[in-house]
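Tokens in:
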């Protein structure tokens, strides 16, 4: 019999893989520790969670909610109505499901549900993945019971007594595995070193451009290259990039990230919190290209945590087209530096994040 008394938990948030996959890891750990518990998700209609969460076997309700549009202020005229509608739906969800804990993982979809839960006296817990918190978590923090964070120094944003430094949970199926087996599974040459480029679930325009502009150099370098483009870019890239050899794999999304990471000698990535957590968890050498299109430039802050510890290299977004691929190909040939980056990344890994967050959830639910 489990030592953890069953709970009914709603996890709310999403919008990107960076919010969603930690949420799924938390749900999996809660169910592992207490199989009689019940978990449901609340997300935003049209976003990645509505497709991915059912694949993991959890029910999900969608809210017609959107974030503030800074590039087109006219689109914000409909926002008050969406917020009110989402609050009404959240009230119905809470009334029907009767949770004894609500967990917010960031993203605007978590706002209405957590706001309703807080006002009904249901304990809430926030999980903040980034070194600079999102606006939704900052707004919800005042009434939250605990805030699980991935980076030190978050007392600047939240009350210190609420903080628990857990790190970010990674996907349950993300396991270290043999590089030789991974290369065989992907149909790649075991005698060539391998670069993995990931731009998040939606893709990273700058990284894609940097690779496309230097594709001839990549072909000439005689390396394996796994290029995850994101769904918005894959069609155009496959149309423009032709005569692709077998050692270059182009795809919109990688479902089996464990194998892709295992194959890689070097990872190119944005500096989202999930990517950084996975890179350190698996002790991978990396070149981080922080996105400039995020609040308070938080991806640069995320990246600098690793760079300052000599656990990763960083190329600025503005410099990527010119220098990203030359930097990567040069680094790939420096095994001493790759080993150092791997060792330092390993030292920053927090491998029990899901367990620690789940334990905080059980404590809050039964307080």
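Residues out:
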């Amino acid at each position: 019999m489990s030592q953890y008394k069953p709970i009914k938990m709603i996890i709310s948030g999403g919008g990107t893989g960076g919010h969603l996959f930690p949420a799924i890891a938390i749900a999996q750990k809660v169910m592992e520790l207490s199989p009689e518990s019940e978990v449901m998700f609340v997300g935003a209609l049209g976003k990645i969670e509505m497709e991915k969460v059912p694949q993991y076997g959890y029910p999900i309700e969608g809210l017609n909610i959107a974030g503030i549009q800074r590039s087109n202020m006219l689109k914000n005229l409909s926002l008050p109505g969406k917020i009110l509608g989402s609050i009404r739906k959240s009230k119905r969800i809470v009334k029907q499901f009767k949770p004894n804990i609500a967990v917010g993982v960031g993203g605007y979809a978590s706002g209405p549900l957590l706001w309703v839960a807080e006002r009904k006296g249901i304990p809430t817990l926030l999980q903040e993945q980034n070194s600079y918190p999102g606006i939704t978590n900052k707004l919800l923090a005042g009434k939250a019971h605990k805030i699980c964070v991935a980076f030190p120094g978050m007392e600047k944003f939240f009350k210190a007594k609420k903080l628990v430094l857990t790190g970010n949970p990674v996907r349950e199926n993300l396991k270290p595995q043999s590089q030789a087996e991974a290369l065989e599974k992907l149909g790649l040459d075991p005698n060539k070193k391998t670069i993995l480029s990931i731009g998040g679930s939606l893709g990273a325009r700058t990284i894609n451009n940097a690779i496309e502009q230097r594709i001839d150099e990549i072909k000439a370098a005689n390396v394996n290259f796994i290029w995850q483009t994101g769904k918005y870019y894959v069609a155009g890239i496959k149309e423009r990039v032709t005569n692709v050899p077998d050692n270059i794999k182009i795809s919109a999304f990688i479902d089996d990230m464990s194998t892709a990471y295992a194959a890689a000698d070097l990872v190119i990535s944005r500096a989202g919190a999930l990517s950084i957590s996975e890179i350190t968890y698996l002790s991978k050498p990396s070149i981080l290209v922080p996105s400039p299109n995020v609040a308070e430039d938080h991806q640069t802050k995320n990246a600098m945590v690793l760079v300052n510890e000599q656990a990763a290299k960083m190329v600025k977004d503005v410099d990527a087209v010119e220098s990203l691929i030359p930097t990567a190909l040069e680094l790939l040939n420096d095994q001493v530096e790759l080993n150092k980056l791997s060792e330092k990344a390993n030292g920053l890994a927090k491998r029990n994040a899901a367990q620690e967050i789940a334990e905080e959830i059980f404590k809050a639910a039964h307080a």
